[in-house]
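Here comes an entry:

___
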Amino acid sequence: MPKRRPKITIRRWKEEDIPGVIACNKAAYADYPPEFEYDQRLYEMQFATFPQGQFVALIGNKVVGFATSLIVSLDDETYWYNVDEITGAGTFSTHNYFGDTLYGADMAVHPDYQRLGISGMLYDRRKRLMKRYNLRRMIAYGRIAGYRQYAGRMTAEQYVRKVVEGELKDQALNSHLKAGYQVKKVQLDITVDFSSLNYSTYLEMPNLDFDLAKSRIAVSGVPKRPARRIRICAAQYLMKPIRCWEEMEESVEFFVDTAAASHCHFLLFPEYFSYQLISCYAAKGGMKETVLKLAGFAERYVQMLRGLAMKYNIYIIGGSHPTLRDGKLYNTAYLLTPSGFVYTQDKLHITPSERNESNIEPGEGIRVFNTPLARIAIQICYDIEFPETSRLLALAGVEVIFVPLYTDEKKAYWRVRHCAQARAVENFVYVVLAGNVGNMRTPIGSFLNYSQAAILTPSDFPFPEKGIQGEADPNVESAVVSELALSALAQQRHIATVRPLHDRRPDLYQLQPMVELEKIRVE
């Protein structure tokens, strides 16, 4: 006797359904790392924002499938938005009742209940929602987990084309095509999906019943989301003898004030710029003892920069400062936010002079800072000379790498500069450099400095000819300010003359982190 088909109910969420939704999501996406799963709080926010757009599939009282969605207004000239940008980092804060697009945020069917037509029922509810609100289209990003076994032998675009033409099968993509979606683009780093090598399809389903006249009346005056741009300032800091802490603080505030007056969002200081304090706080024993003494000023250094970030409403990458933790010295960069939060990134690769002269230890964590304006990372000086770390950061979605540096002569500076330019080209990221300039005599010796602050870009048609967005005059106290177009950067990763992130050969080589990259949501 054939097995009886269970009764499946599709309805809107209730708040008490959320634990079941979480359990269903875990089962359906068992290959997703736990840190990328939404928790109770985020699902509650999604439900509170747009309850009409959240659906569950039930067998009895068990959640066996669900679908989430929101209405958004997107710029038709560029659809290079990542998932966090469209969904407000999973909060659905971007939901806009006057938008013209239904974004299918998530859909899952429990593995034990697949092939019962549940996904088709959930898609039907989304289609009805699209018609009810007279939305122009429904869009989504889809997985292509089957591509992994073909990667290197064909591009992701070729794989998708073969699935669309029926030559290959892909569970998720075939499901989307069956639902009525059209593949508009294959994109990289729109979302984190290791099983799909971070590739996803950009899918669109037009609303055949869309009434343009009604829509124009309803959304009159509603602006589209603007292109994402940020303004950066890199300080070229003059190392000169000072008599007290307050003199250094005065110099630091000068640069913060300059950046704020230029309406900058981010300000980068150089590595070890606080070594200026050696001129008035040197220890008798020599460099090792002096660096240990400077580490005692770490909290004061952080509070100085934190106060300035809050006062001037700017994100400050505060160069770096020796920091003592658990009896060990680290070269630590600090990110200070306008809200008063403090984040850190240790230097990972330590030069021989740092080891031998200052007892600096290598750090361990690789961090991505997801700020409200851009996804950024910090690589301190020597770190940028190691392409593996930069590539891992790029694959994690980083758009701007800030490089505070300390170089004492031209060869050292240009070694860092050439590597930074290569990282910008290889990964289609912006790289910002800031270093110290000038010479300084201190009780424990003389310090030479050579640098030229620069903001570097990839090398292709939309970017400056030499890959330099801006640079300061070399080796004088100065600063460079430039504006960076993040939307253009996202586009060019996919449509530029060459596409290093797309054209890798995972069938010949692979890059795997030995520790998990930390993705930090910056307040």
Notes: Residues 410-427 form the longest helix (18 residues). DSSP finds 15 helices and 24 strands in the chain. The CA atoms of residues 232 and 482 lie 5 Å apart. The mean pLDDT is 91.
